[in-house]
Fold this protein.
Amino acid sequence: MVGQWGQGPGGVRQAKAMAELQERYMVDAVATASPAARLVMLYDKLVADCTMADAAFERRDWYQVNEALVNAQEILIYLSASLEPELWPEAGDQLRALYNFLYSELVEVNLRKDRERLGRPRGMISQLADAWRQAAGNLATQEAPAAGQGHAEPGHADPVHMGPAEASTPHSGVLAGAGGRDGG
């Protein structure tokens, strides 16, 4: 049936229009999100890239393995560059070192096409994502009542740049144990 999604000229136009709407939605979602929510979005994309790389390894699709891992590496570069360790002296340098380690591991996974080696950085990235998600949730919970009283601005605190008093609990366990091309 011509005109259905992906069939005939009308379907191609509809699919393209839908893709453009999805892209605009993502741009708007990122632009209007709080810094904490943006950080969680980056981590979600980082986890998704590792998952896509693993699935591509299963299919032996080396192009997709490379694409997913390179995107994950770019996000780690962005996270490391945006970190301000002087605001979190006890752990900021450790977090930067962890980002650098994860980056190096993903480079090695990609160069050697070593699916087994992906497991360790993927697990660590998942733990970091969970910790940042929890920190962002805690921050949102703290800001909601304060915003109603006029004491805090929503989205004022930024987990990437938080000091230890604001964010040490979700990070200390992760640290003791241990941005993207396509709009992520």
Remarks:
- The mean pLDDT is 77.
- DSSP finds six helices and no strands in the chain.
- The CA atoms of residues 5 and 11 lie 4 Å apart.
